[in-house]
Amino acid sequence: MGDWAATERQVIDAFFRFSPTHARYMGDHRFDGVVGDLSKTAIRARVSEIDRQLSTIGAVPRLDGGQSVDRRALIAQLEAARFELTELRLPFREPMFYAGPSELDVSFYLKRPYASLGDRLAALRRHLLGYGGFLEAARDNLEMVLPRPNLEIAIDAVAGQAEYLDGEVRAAAGGQAETLEAIDVANRQLRDFGDGLKARLATADDAFALGEDHFLRLLSLREFVQLDVPALERMVRADIERNRSAAEAAAEQIAPGAGMQAAVARLEDHHPTASSIIADVTAMLGRLRTFLVDRDVVSLPSNGHCLVQPTPTYAAYISAAMDSAGPLETVATDSYYWVTVPGTDWDAAKSEEWLRYMNYATLEGTSIHEAYPGHYVQGLFERHATSPTRQLFWTYTTGEGFAHYVEEMMLEVGYSTDPKQLLAQRLEALLRDCRFLVALGLHCRRMTMPDAIRLFESVGYMTELPATREATRGAWDPMYLNYTLGKLLILELRSEMQRRPGYTLKTFHDAFLGCGAMPIPLIRELLG
User: Fold this and answer.
1) From 426's CA, which of 54, 98, 266, 520 has a CA 20 to 30 Å away?
2) By CB neighbour count within 10 A (0-12 exposed, 13-18 middle, 19+ buried), where does 59 fall?
3) Residue 299: left (phi > 0), alpha (psi -120 to 50), or beta?
């Protein structure tokens, strides 16, 4: 093969061709209007392509140290993709392979003005015309017996996408008859697919577990973490004890002698209104950014802006999220921090319940995670990463691990001493600890779903509905242990770096983020 840059580009373009949505997330508009082919024939061709690339990628000569690390990361991406297609059989066993963040997503054409509206609507129409073939492949590929929790969340996701097409997409089309017709056809196809998934509930089972061997292999390929289940359990149980002790101490400060639930109630008493929440969060981001600069916590590369907006309807099931501009986006580089606001059709009781959940202490911690210095700042650094491999692949432990790590780090360096803020942070940490234990339990330890729900209730101090939601997520997102695992690996790496001459917190954060979205063990190598 030729030089490394050409090889790297060829491998990444192959990922983009198989999953044009991946390309669009990254801001590569060459793939606008293109829907990936997930037919059995295309899947077999993709596996063969991966095999050819794996057989030749190691032959590229004269790589420097950084390129050698990039090659290992890219080989792992290829091996993980092959593993998911052939061993985990995601196209055949996982309905969220089609209903999740997949080729059904058309939000790219509406949320950023990277081109004229006419050009974006033309791409939207081409995309919607591809729904039929995509959904036909999904029906053909998915086995008749599917895991029930995965199937139920896929049904909800398809319904949400149909509502989005009928609502915001239809509104964006204005009076364009051609676009409206494409929306109508796609929506009928989507709802028919949803009905087909519902019909499969009658034969659904609870066989969602990956099994220990597959679970650990996936963790090794995706995150370069090679630990056994007992070692992973020891890590998370130590973190649970640390977080529980700190949470109980904060609760005692807030509500002396009254217990955790009373402390949480007082925390929730201090919340925004439906009309103030967007402005309140915007002000939070200003305070956070100022603190980062004044305390020299991390550099802030300049690219675009972070704008606070109400969450779009198709994502309204989330409380808040960062929608960063892709690293390849050159025109519409603003990022959107979505915050879910009570709907105009909500009654007073539902609105109050939601706003109590979105209390100021929780919003502050969420804004640290999503924006400053979490995901938004990560995105700024990724735009400046030194190679496409470091820019264009998501690594769970690095992405969510860093965003979770900074929640606690910001309190360590003095952002707040309010016990309500401390309690909110520790409760979030316990939630992530529960995800860690439940992921291991469901996929490696034969834990039942009722036991997983009870764990979230007892260890995470959650009520039944959110505990059920969180436990169910573990069935189709087995790697959601990586929030806590990533945080713990980053703390371990930081401890190593602190022993080196010239260490500062800012130099550590800049160096870590400067490596892009690489697995943490490879970042350790890059930092020397």
Assistant:
1) 520
2) exposed
3) beta
